[in-house]
């Protein structure tokens, strides 16, 4: 039933960094060309909202210094320019609504713009509309710096969950038609988001387990699924042994929340020790799930159908 390219209707990565386009747009072009070779429908490419102030430490990625006023907003704006330049050079157009993905899917390499960590808002809710006007359609609330919106998985809690400003931002995302991403957020922060929304949310890149603070348990996954949302399976040796273990974890996640609530979220070009990092061979994921005995209808959902459903519900 599968073809050499996986044979799925949609092949979508719910979280990536597109060749680290923010360092060099030509690297983004190379990933776009790779997407086309592999029959990829789209990827959600993220600008990093706290990029200039985080870095590696003996405890992994974390805040290294406090930002100067305006630094994070200006940095995100420049990186968004670099993403659009990569799209221009790669001969693709950014997708703002689900029909854009449908219209452009035959040419492949469709990009949906995201921000990972809304530190770049710098406490100003009106900047949600600014970035929406610039084409961003997925907003991840927190990253590796404890910002004004809520607590993160990799540091001790400071806010006790979602803050009042975080609630304002979530409500503004709903008003404008922006998909809310709760990756990196603590369970309590996610609970605060779920209590506000009437549309699906995503957790774009995580995985079941306890090897890394960024892993989640069944209850965390079910909380996201309760909105009609989706968890993108994170492809890293920080959390799984190898590619086979990654596929096994996707099956376990599907058993925990149902096939309607699972997707692929590689974190490509940012994650350390990836177990999958080649869009031209995306077919290996659906083919491996088929080998595990998963129904083809469920594989189609996980490979990209679920993201399309959630994106349509949240964005239009």
How would you explain this protein's 3D organization?
The chain is an alpha/beta fold. The chain has ten helices and ten strands. The strands form three sheets. The chain has a five-stranded parallel sheet, with helices on both faces. Strands 8-9-10 form a three-stranded parallel sheet. Strands 3-4 form a two-stranded antiparallel ribbon. Helix 1 (25-37) crosses helix 2.
Share of β-strand residues? 5-15%
**What is the CATH topology classification name?**
TIM Barrel
The average pLDDT score comes to: 95
What is the CATH architecture assignment?
Alpha-Beta Barrel
Please give the CATH class.
Alpha Beta
Give me the count of strands.
10
Radius of gyration from the alpha-carbon trace, in angstroms: 18 Å
Helix/strand/pairing class, anyone?
A: alpha/beta
Number of helices: 10
| Oligomeric state of the chains present here | single chain
Q: Give the spatial strand order of the biggest sheet.
A: 1-2-5-6-7
Q: N-to-C SSE series?
A: EHEEEHHEHEHEHEHEHEHH
Question: Alpha-carbon distance between the termini?
Answer: 31 Å
| Proportion in helices | 25-40%
Largest sheet features: 5 strands, parallel
* Inertia-based shape: globular
Low-confidence stretches: none
How many distinct folded domains? 1
């Amino acid at each position: 039933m599968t073809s050499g390219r996986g044979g799925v209707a949609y092949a979508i990565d719910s979280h990536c960094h597109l060749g680290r386009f923010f360092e060099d747009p030509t690297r983004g072009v190379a990933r776009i060309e790779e997407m086309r070779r592999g029959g990829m429908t789209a990827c959600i490419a993220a600008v990093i909202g706290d990029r200039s102030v985080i870095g590696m430490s003996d405890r992994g990625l974390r805040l290294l210094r406090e930002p100067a006023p305006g630094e994070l907003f200006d940095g995100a704006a420049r990186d968004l320019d670099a993403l659009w330049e990569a799209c221009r050079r790669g001969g693709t157009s950014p997708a703002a609504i689900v029909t854009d993905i449908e219209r452009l899917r035959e040419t492949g390499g469709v990009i949906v713009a995201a921000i990972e960590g809304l530190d770049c808002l710098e406490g100003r809710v009106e900047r949600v509309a600014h970035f929406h006007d610039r084409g961003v359609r997925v907003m991840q609330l927190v990253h590796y710096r404890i910002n004004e919106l809520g607590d993160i998985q990799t540091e001790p809690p400071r806010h006790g969950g979602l803050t009042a400003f975080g609630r304002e931002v979530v409500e503004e995302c709903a008003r404008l038609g922006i998909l809310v991403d709760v990756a990196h957020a603590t369970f309590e922060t996610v609970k605060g988001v779920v209590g506000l929304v009437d549309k699906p949310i995503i957790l774009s890149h995580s995985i079941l387990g306890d090897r890394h603070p960024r892993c989640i348990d069944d209850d965390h996954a079910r909380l996201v699924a309760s909105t009609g949302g989706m968890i993108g399976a994170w492809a890293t040796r920080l959390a799984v042994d190898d590619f086979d273990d990654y596929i096994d974890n996707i099956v376990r996640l599907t058993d925990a929340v149902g096939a309607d609530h699972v997707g692929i979220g590689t974190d490509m070009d940012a994650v350390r020790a990836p177990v999958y990092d080649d869009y031209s061979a995306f077919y290996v994921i659906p083919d491996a799930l088929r080998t595990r005995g998963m129904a083809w209808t469920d594989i189609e959902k996980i490979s990209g159908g679920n993201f399309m459903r959630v994106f349509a519900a949240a964005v239009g």
